[in-house]
Structures are given as structure tokens and as C-alpha cells.
Write a structure and sequence with these properties.
Elements (H helix, E strand, L loop, with lengths): L1 E9 L3 E8 L6 E9 L13 E3 L2 E2 L4 H27 L2 E10 L11 H23 L4 E5 L3 H9 L3 H11 L9 H16 L2
Parallel strand pairs: 1-6, 6-7
Antiparallel strand pairs: 1-2, 2-3, 4-5
Helix pairs in contact: 1-2, 3-5
Amino acid sequence: MSRAAIGFTVKSGWASVVLVAGPATRPTAIDSRRIELSDPAIPETRQPYHAGFGTARAAGAERSRLLAAVKRYGRRSVTAVIHQHAALGHRITGAGLVVGSLIDPDGIGNDHIRIHALEGQLFREVVRSAAGRAKLRCRIWRERDLYGCAVDLLTQPEPGIRAAVAALGRDVEGPWRAEQKSAALAAWLVLAHRR
């Protein structure tokens, strides 16, 4: 079994997922896909803290129902992709999560920005929790810090890292945009960290 790590770029209601395997000096992307974290049968779960544009959904039974649906559906999605990747014959050693923000929503005064922060926190926690249940250690990076952390950990210049991440996309089918690249780099950093 080759060593592998799984990377997630967490968005509101979905995540890009990339499995990277091999030595940290020469990683290979094995799989890239998008998974849903919100329940497609309940459209409101994509933004469960929103009642309308810029308006917060009041605490209560409806919001609790939506949050429970996200946690249930999202954990199943994350668990399924981890099991599918493990079935490919790779020993997954950890997970890397790339998120937009790590700000505590309670410290945000603007209601609309707080709503988005709450949703970011919710979806991040769903992925982290499901990975933890699968016995994967998680590392979390803010998207804007990811390449700076990579320069430090991989001891390579940023242009070289960016070129290597772009080249990883040749190994998998489907789009290879910013979300996939971030997920791949997070997985690569997990491989390098556990070296």
C-alpha cells in the first residue's frame, strides 16, 4: 500500500476532494472530485443560516432541522469518499482542509458576514468531524496562507510549488481549477508533514 493523503477545499455546501499518493518528494494525484456537503433534496441546506439575501435565519426548529440535515448528509459524503479512496489500495495517513476563514463568527458584528462565517464553520466542522471519525488527523489552512505554508514546509520556492501543483492535474480527469489545486496542495502538505 502506498501512503496517501486526502485534501478538501471546503466551500458552502460542497467540497473539492483530491487524493494524493506517493512520497512527498514526488506526489501523484490519484483522484479528484466534487462532493456535496449539503443535501440536494433540501436546497436550503446549502446556506442554512440564511433566511434570504443577507438575512439571518432565526434560531428555532427550522434552522435546527437544516443544520442536522447538513451534518448527516455531509458526514455521509465525506465518509463515503474516504472509504472509496481507501478501497483503491492506498493507506491514507491524514487529511488537509483548505478553508476561506478561521474567524470566530461570534466576534463579527456585521450580521451578513457573520452568517457566512457560521456556514463556513459548519461545513469545515462537518468535514473535520467525518475525517476524525475515519481516524484521519486533520490539518487546516486558510486559503490565503496555503502557499506560504507550503514554501516553509516543502522548502521550495512558490513558483516551483505552483508549477508542480498544476502538473498534478494531468494525472486526473475533470477540472483542475483553484479549488482542486488547493485540495491537492493540502494533501501534499499532509504527506510532507508526516514524513
